[in-house]
Amino acid sequence: MSHQPLSHQVNPRDVLALDALLNQDEVLLRDTVRRFVGDRILPEVADWYERGTFPKEMALEFGRLGLLGMHLEGYGCAGTSATAYGLACLELEAGDSGARSFVSVQGSLAMFPIWAFGSEDQKQRWLPAMATGEAIGCFGLTEPDSGSDPSSMRTFAKQQPGGDWILNGTKMWITNGSVADVAVVWAGTDDGVRGFVVPTDTPGFSAPEIHRKVSLRASITSELVMDNVRLPADAVLPGARGMKGPLSCLNEARFGILFGACGAARACYEAALDYAGERVQFDRPISAFQLTQRKLVEMMVAVQRGTLVAMHLGRMKDAGTLATPHVSFGKMDNVAMAREVAGTARSVLGANGITLEYPVMRHMNNLESVYTYEGTNEIHTLILGQAITGQAAFS
After folding, report:
1. Which UniProt keywords apply (predicted)?
2. DSSP structural state of residue 60
């Protein structure tokens, strides 16, 4: 037993010294993405947010960093560990949820189904270009009347006597939709739900952009409209039948989100910590007041705890022991944590917290979307409820 005196020195940005849990390669990747976010995203993201856009050319920059499909093997993908992918998502979302969403949708929702379920021709055609950012992908599952219950989708593909497919339907809330080169669209067929690889220049396909958002503004969000879109017989993903295909893609994306939410929360906590040390009231910085210190401590503990959960789940995924309820645990709790931290940080910054001079209100608004997309908080609660009781509370 050690009897060395305890040190009173801690890093206020990493009180539990979580960096010690990372290996050298993970630290290098994390620091590389953090520098990129600081140099390329943070100086401009407030303007992107205010204008309601995300520059398409960022895809090439993400590609040069090896971030697109980074957790996949082959076809120009980096083949990193799941934990490394999660750390990249964490740093990207510390910049903005829109940046993490772009990388997450490209890699986990568009590239992953082609990689996991596609034919060799589909993989060779799309994955190398998507890994470099030369081709952008999107994922079409959610519909105007079908969100938490995707199995009730109305989009339908009918196979013709010659083998071609005719695809009709509408998808909603599609990240990257109007800038995508290819869409992975899930549709009902006479043989159950199937996935289709749809080049966006196919006649009958359109992707009108959704405007007037107050959340995820530094992100392109669209509808997908398929009006008698004719596809060749080999447009279908041969390895995916039923809802297991799209749901496995959602689990990939949720894994990135449970890391990413910690990045948004950390950015809010650090903004509040810095502000409280600089803002002077009653002749002293507000960080000297007990109520402010309580807020800062509660935020710090929440961020560190959420990051520990993310790291543990990352190690489980790398070990092959991660299950769907584990992903729901992380997505549900870490996003709820980040949402609360953002609100507390906003209160520390006072009126300054509502401006784009600080990142807090931007993260706060973004997290409202993150809280409900890729499975609402309620759905993840019920997934966990079924896991611990054995009783399904929903179909």
Report:
1. FAD, Flavoprotein, Oxidoreductase, Transit peptide
2. H
Are residues 138 and 171 in contact, defined by beta-carbon separation less than 8 angstroms? no
Any bridge partners for residue 268, and if so which? Answer: none
CATH for 137-241? 2.40.110.10
In the residue annotation, 26 being an active-site residue is answered as no
The continuous run of DSSP H or E covering 106 comes out as none
Q: Determine the distance from the C-alpha atom of residue 215 to the mean position of all C-alpha atoms in its chain, rounded to a whole number.
A: 14
The CA distance from 84 to 186, in Å, is: 29
- Tokens 């993490």 belong to 100
Token pair listed for 154 = 């109305």
143: left (phi over 0), alpha (psi -120 to 50) or beta: beta
50-67 tens-digit pLDDT:
999 999 999 999 999 999
Share of the chain above pLDDT 90, in %: 90
Domain boundaries, the chain: 18-132, 137-241, 245-389
Using DSSP's 3-state secondary structure scheme, residue 363 falls into helix
Instruction: Choose which CATH entry (1.10.10.920, 1.20.140.10, 1.10.8.60, 3.30.1360.120) describes domain 245-389.
Output: 1.20.140.10
Nearest-angstrom CA–CA distance, 83 and 7: 30
Q: Shortest CA distance to 252 belongs to which of 45, 136, 104, 99? A: 104
| Encoded tokens for 62 | 């993400």
Please tell me the distance from the alpha carbon of residue 303 to that of residue 137, in angstroms, as a whole number: 32
Q: How far apart are the first and last CA of the chain?
A: 53
Query: Of the candidates 92, 170, 209, which has an alpha carbon nearest to the alpha carbon of residue 108?
Result: 92
C-alpha angle 18/349/257, rounded to 5°?
Answer: 45
CA-to-CA distance for 163 and 231, rounded, in angstroms? 9
Measured CA to CA, the distance from residue 13 to residue 10 in angstroms comes to 9
Q: Are 306 and 338 in contact (CB under 8 A)?
A: yes
β-pairing verdict for 137-140 and 182-189: parallel
Tens of pLDDT, residue by residue over 174-216, are: 999 999 999 999 999 999 999 999 999 999 999 999 999 999 9
Cα 57–Cα 62–Cα 66 angle in degrees, nearest 5: 145
Map tokens 């209160």 to a residue.
347
Which is nearest to 224 in space by CA: 310, 110, 129? 110
Of 143, 252, 270, 374, catalytic: 374
Please tell me the distance from the alpha carbon of residue 246 to that of residue 346, in angstroms, as a whole number: 36
